[in-house]
Amino acid sequence: MEIKNDILWRVYVCFLGIVLLAVMVLGRAFYIQQVQGAYWKDMGTNLQLKYLPIEAERGSIYSEDGNMLSTSIPVFDVYVDFAADGLRDKQGKRFKDNVDSLSMNLATLFKDKTAEEYKQQLQLAYQNKDRYFALKKKISFDEYRSLRNFPLVRLGRNKSGFIIDTRDKRINPYVLLANRTIGLSRLDAKKNVGLELTYDSLLKGISGQRLMRYVGGSYMPIMGSELDPVNGKDIITTLDTYMQDVAENALMKMLVDNNSIHGTVIIMETATGKIKAIANLGIQPDGTYLEDLNYGIAKATEPGSVFKLATLLSLLEDKHVNINSIVDCEGGVKSFYGLKIKDSHLGTGRVTVKQAFLASSNVAFASLAEQFYHSDPSKFVEHLQRFRLNKMTGIDIVASSGKPTIKTPANRSWSKTTLPYMAHGYEELVTPLHMLMLYNAVANNGKMMRPYLVNAIRHYGVDIRKIDPEVLVEKICSDATLAQARECLRAVVDSAHGTGHKVLYDSAYSISGKTGTAVTALNNLGYNKGNKIYQASFIGFFPSEKPMYTMAVVIQNSRESKKIYGADVSGTVFKEISDRIYTHFIANLKMNTTSTIDSALYSSYGMKNDYQSIFSYLNIGYKDSSQGGYWRNMQMKNKGANLSAPDYSSANVKVAPDVTGMGLKDAVYLLENKGLIVEVQGRGRVQNQSIAAGTGFIKGQKISLLLN
After folding, report:
1. pLDDT of residue 188
2. Fewer CB near the terminus (10 Å): N or C of the chain?
3. Is 460 exposed, middle or buried (0-12, 13-18, 19+ CB in 10 A)?
């Protein structure tokens, strides 16, 4: 009995505890709901609301000649708020009346589902009252423009529930052109390199803010709560698209024909240091060539015989020799402290310094350096440092590695053989751009310029910062030394015995420069016969009398390469590029300086605002006979222009406009706005169009444009 009472007592105590706990829970719930209800509701609302960034429109990157190298185009994400009051008004009558026609239009536009599948998808989302239903993502502007006119959508956001989220997609309109220098990553914007990375803070602008509500697993924007972003600034580069295209094509041709591993071409404007073109191509596992590394800036190698210019300048400046001094090549083979140095052409004996340079004798320059700098090698190194071969180039671009290495006697790796090997291009590491800067200084009367890639920073069409040429070294050596060095560089091409004569002499203009063929080790496996490959170089300037452009061509050959020497490989590329540049720029410039005012009639077609800006900047008078519209025919003669609106500029007029002579961007914009599908071949301006101007067409019809 006592045990039973004891158990009952315990049960009663537990039951009483449960009752008290329940009363406390209920009391607490009542207190939260009735007393603190407003507080917790506000907190819940605040947790569902969040400010998210609105990315600014990223600035574009332009070439110096006005072509767009990298830009952002809008893409659109389409969402639907199926709980929108206007959509569900009158028991959803508006949705039910339009869902069939809307589904048919969506199926016709996107062609990824049938009209019935779209209808089922929309009806299910409507039943579930999805607040931020993702209908379609990454649609183009053309698709977005069509979507705006669809049933229901055209009623506006409040009545249709349709929400359009705009964002930017980064593209390089020229695809391969200067891709590594521009630096646009195809997969991840965080992996950009080149100018896209270097000037990221300017290009990206300032982000805005938009208040978003968390609904159904995603954030939905709240209208009227946006803080507009500030668009990014534009970058105007020093690059010239014509030179860039010529350089890449010539380099590609040689790499493919010669089975080379990689190569680079850098073209510099002699007087300013502007980089007019920089091409970098490397072989891929599938045998194709892409811009996979900036070999001209980021890859330091042993330069080979192109380095002999630095040795020649040092010897001449210290007055140890002049170009008529005699040096013994000793048959083309000489041993230095147990290591043999050889010339590519054996049998040479006593020759002048100039002859040794134009024939590229390794023995001669190793002997001269050993003879005059053995007791004081620091004197030779000081010259190299004055030529800034031990410093970063200072170019305005982010590039990995590329740090030069010029040994000094204080280095642990310095040995008795270091000096003779340095003298003919080994035991130092420099990039092609370092050597180009030295050659450019010789061409520029001794003035070494900082290489640069950006001319100006522009915001909303106005230059807010201009980058001027910068002198790094006012004079690398005396005028007497420069004159002798330039004579030797010209002899490399002009002399019948020069290493560049066979490939480069036959030109309508003069070329000065130096060939180089450096022995390198395949995959760093040593210099034995099986792993030995050759780096071919030619660095020079033209025209020799008054240099306008300096160019470096450096190509890494493979074991399968048929040609290995600097003249045959890189000299051939140099010649093809310099011929095209001379014909396109220098020869035309000479003709234009003697020409009179052009009285011929010139016609073109473009946007009204563009013409007005150009004429205002160039101080050209013009008359505009039309008031409305965006497009104009332009006719100019004797520095006077007349503008008139074309009859077919309206989107409602179904005849093809004349886009010949227009840039690709304007031509595509105009044609796509009229409902045509554009196909493009070539680069440059429109030369021909498959549908003649003024001819009728059907919406959705294809038109082919041939660019010049």
Report:
1. 57
2. N
3. exposed
